[in-house]
């Protein structure tokens, strides 16, 4: 297991997890070498829609996009919006680049996606407060042992950061199939109820994937294993 420095003790001290898995295929390596530099989030300075996309537009931010299928499907659905995704796992970045490049004819190349190969929180801190319309945290690494609870992305520091970056009325979407993470997340989000309103009226609202919420790879795997999946939509107050 690799541990990365993340650099902000008020959020997550370190970025835990895999950085690299199987060697990339030649086509994926080519995308990492040639497409990624064109659509990478700038290494320094404020990150605004104007800077990334040339003009102001609603901004979406996905933390830990895995293989990028949710981010790409959302970007395809909302071509006038801008999408920023962060993922430290290079194989995931390479898969996301395949989606951005054109997804085998399922959709044209996506011009509205920018990628950070690295820590989501480092980028999130550089987005001006109140600039995001949507933030996504889908199937974060569960870190199920109690002694690792601080490593979970759903904790006070990251949630405060997400709250700061969302505009009033903006939406935070969170999904998991992990019962321990679910309980932990509900506890954390309850502490943040001054910032977020949980948009659930009935059980169906968190048991059934909402419209406009494309399935992620982990979600599909979880369902294939017979797990229940829970969906949470929170509106920034
Ligand atoms: C269980 S996977 C889920 C991936 C994807 N969201 C899905 O649902 O298929 C969790 C992902 O979060 C990523 N991750 C962990 N810490 C992160 C961080 N600080 N910033 C960005 N991504 C992170 C991991 O590399 C991993 O790909």
What does this protein look like?
With 237 residues, the chain is of the alpha/beta class. The protein has a single domain (2-236), classed as 3-Layer(aba) Sandwich (Rossmann fold). 34% of the residues lie in helices and 21% in strands. It is built from ten helices and nine strands. The chain has helices at 26-34, 36-39, 49-53, 69-77, 90-101, 120-125, 156-165, 179-191, 204-207, 217-224, and strands spanning 2-5, 14-17, 59-63, 82-86, 113-116, 132-138, 166-176, 196-198, 230-236. The strands form two sheets. A seven-stranded mixed beta sheet has the order 5-4-3-6-7-9-8, with helices on both faces. A two-stranded antiparallel sheet has the order 1-2. Helix 1 (26-34) crosses helix 5. The model is unreliable at 1-10 (pLDDT under 50). The structure holds S-adenosylmethionine. Residues 15, 17, 63-66, 86-89, 92, 119-121, 138-141, 216-219 line the site of S-adenosylmethionine. S-adenosylmethionine binds next to strand 2, helix 6 and helix 10.
SSE layout and pairing:
Elements: E1 2-5, E2 14-17, H1 26-34, H2 36-39, H3 49-53, E3 59-63, H4 69-77, E4 82-86, H5 90-101, E5 113-116, H6 120-125, E6 132-138, H7 156-165, E7 166-176, H8 179-191, E8 196-198, H9 204-207, H10 217-224, E9 230-236
Parallel strand pairs: 3-4, 3-6, 4-5, 6-7
Antiparallel strand pairs: 1-2, 7-9, 8-9
Helix pairs in contact: 1-5
């Amino acid at each position: 297991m690799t541990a990365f420095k993340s650099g902000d003790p008020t959020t997550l001290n370190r970025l835990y997890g895999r950085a690299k898995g199987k060697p990339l295929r030649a086509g994926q390596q080519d995308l990492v070498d040639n497409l990624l530099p064109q659509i990478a989030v700038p290494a320094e300075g404020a990150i605004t829609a104007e800077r990334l996309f040339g003009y102001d537009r609603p901004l979406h931010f996905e933390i830990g996009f895995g293989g990028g299928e949710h981010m790409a499907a959302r970007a395809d659905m909302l071509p006038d919006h801008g999408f920023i995704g962060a993922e430290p796992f290079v194989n995931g970045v390479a898969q996301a680049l395949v989606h951005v490049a054109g997804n085998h004819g399922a959709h044209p190349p996506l011009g509205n996606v920018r990628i950070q190969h690295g820590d989501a929180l480092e980028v999130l801190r550089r987005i001006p407060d109140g600039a995001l319309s949507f933030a996504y945290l889908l199937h974060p690494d569960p870190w199920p042992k109690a002694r690792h609870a601080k490593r979970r992305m759903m904790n006070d520091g990251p949630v405060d950061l997400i709250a700061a970056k969302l505009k009033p009325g903006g939406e935070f979407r969170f999904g998991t199939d992990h019962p321990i993470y679910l309980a932990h997340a509900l506890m954390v989000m309850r502490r943040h109820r001054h910032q977020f309103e949980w948009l659930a009226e009935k059980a169906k609202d968190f048991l059934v994937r909402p419209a406009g919420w494309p399935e992620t790879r982990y979600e599909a795997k979880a369902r294939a294993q017979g797990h229940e999946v829970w969906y949470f939509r929170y509106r920034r107050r």
